[in-house]
Amino acid sequence: MKRISALLASLALAVTAVQPALAKTALAHASSDGISPVEVSQSIHHDVSRPLRDLAAAAGPAQPDTQHAQPWRRFSTPNAAADAALQNILDPDVQTAAAPLVSATVGLNFDGISVVSPTNPCHCAPPDTEGVVGAAQYVQFVNTAFAVYDKATGALILGPVAGKTLWSGFGGGCQNNDDGDPIAQYDKAANRWVLTQFSVSTRPFLECVAVSTTSDATGSYNRYAFSYGNVQFNDYPKLGVWPDAYYVSYNIFNNGQTFAGAKACALDRTAMLSGASATQVCFQGTPTTTPNGLLPSDLDGSTPPPAGEPNYFLGLNTPGTSVSGTTLNLWKFHVDFTHPLSSTFSGPTSINVGRYFLGCLSSGTCVPQLGTAQQLDSLGDRLMYRLAYRNFGRAAVLVVNHSVMVSATQLGVRWYEIAIVNGSPILVQAGTVAPDTTSRWMGSIAMDKVGDLLLGYSASSSSMHPAIRFTGRVLSDPANTMEAEATLFQGTGSQTGVSRWGDYSAMTVDPVDDCTMWYTNEYLRINSGNWRTRIFTLRFPNCH
Known about the structure:
544 residues; mainly beta; Methylamine Dehydrogenase, Chain H; nine-stranded mixed beta sheet; five-stranded antiparallel beta sheet
C-alpha cells in the first residue's frame, strides 16, 4: 500500500504541475468527422471446439510450411525531404542521466519456438513473437504456430502446432488458412485465454478468435469468425481485454493494397465467454482521421476500470507527408451491445509530447547488424503492442512505447506513462532509451501492481549481432528515467535474406502475483534467416 500511495501521490503532483498548460495547449479536441457511422455485424460462424489437446493429437506431426508472412504494408510514403532539416535535432527525451544497473532479476530463461525446429510448422518470417502468461501456463504464439508451457518450470506441455489447429473442424478460412499475425491474450477477470489470427489469403477477410472455456489452454474453446468483407484487408490486428468487450484495432488496406485508415472494433466479451452468438461493433477511420494505426488499451491488475469507462485507443499523430510528430492521439470507444447503434468512438484528444522522428524515417529499414549489409525493419511508423492500462483508484495509468530516431543512423525506444484522470489524459513522464550508439527497437512495456515499469526490446549495431535487452524503473527513480539496461540474451548471428524483424514482442504481467513479468522476443544463433525465440521471467524485488 505504501508504494501504491507513492504512485498516486506522484500522479497527483504531475496533474497539478501541468494542469495550467493543459488547459491551453496539451488537450486539443478535434471533431470525429471522417469516422464512419457505427458498423454492426454478427460473427459469421461460431462453435465450441473439442479440447485443444485432442485437436493437436489428431493433427499428427507438424507439416512445416515455407510461406513468408504477409508483406509489410506501410500506411503512407512520407516525404523524407520535408523533414530533412530536422533530422539533426537531438531527441528531447533521450535520457542522459546515469543510472544504476536495472534492479529487476531474471528467473526463467528458455528457448521458445524456433524456425529451425523440425516440430515447428511455421517456416515463415518474421516470427511475430507473441506470448502471454495465465494462471498456470504460458502460451507463445509465433506467426502461424503456437505452444503451451508450464508456468512454473518452462516445460513444454503442448506443441508447437499450426495456428489453424485451434480451428480444426470449424470450416472456412479460419480452418483452412494459416495466415498469422497472431495475438495471445489472457482475460484475467474470467481466467480465460483469448487467441487470434487472421485469415486473409481467401475471401472474405476474417479475424479468427478463440476464447477458452476454462483456464487450461489445452482445453476446449468457443470459436468465432468475424468478417470484414471482400475489400477490407484487416492487417496487423491488436487486441485489448476490457470488462465490456474485447477491443481490436486493424490497419485496413483496401484489396490489400491501399491504406484506408484504422478500424476499431468491439467484440461482445460476455457472449463469447458463454459461447453464444457474438455481435461486433466497429468504426472505420480514414488515413487522415486515424493515421499511423491505433492500439486498444489492455487491462492489467485486479482492479477494473471505473464502471462505464470507455476503452482508450492511442496512436501516433504524424501526417502522411511527415516523418516526425509532437503529439499522441487518444480516442474513446464506448460500446453498447444492447443498443449497438448508440455506441460511440470519440476523439481524438491530442497529448503533447517531445518531438519524435519515426524509426528509420521513410525507409522503414535501417537497423544495422554485425557481419552483413542486411538491415532490419523498425516498424517505426506505429506504436508497439501493448497499450497497458492499470487502475490505481484515484487515477489510472497507460504505458506504451515506439521506435524513434535519435540520430541519422541510430534508433532508440521512446516510452510514455500517461495518467487518465476524470477521463482526461495527462502525460506524467516519458523518456528515450539510447545510452550509446547501438540501435534499440521492437519494444514492449508493462507496469506491475506497485507501479514499477519493465521495458524489453531488441538491440543491434554494426559491431554486434541482435540481442534481447531490458530496462525498467521503480517509483523512487528520478522522473523520466529508466535504470541502466541489461542483456537478457545475446544473439550470436545476424539475420540475412529478410529485413522483417518482429513484427512485435510481448511483455505481460502474471495475473496471480501481479508482479512477475513474462517477456518474449527473437534472436539468431548463426548468420541466416533462421530466427529463434526466447522466453524470460522478470521481477522487481520490491513487488510482493
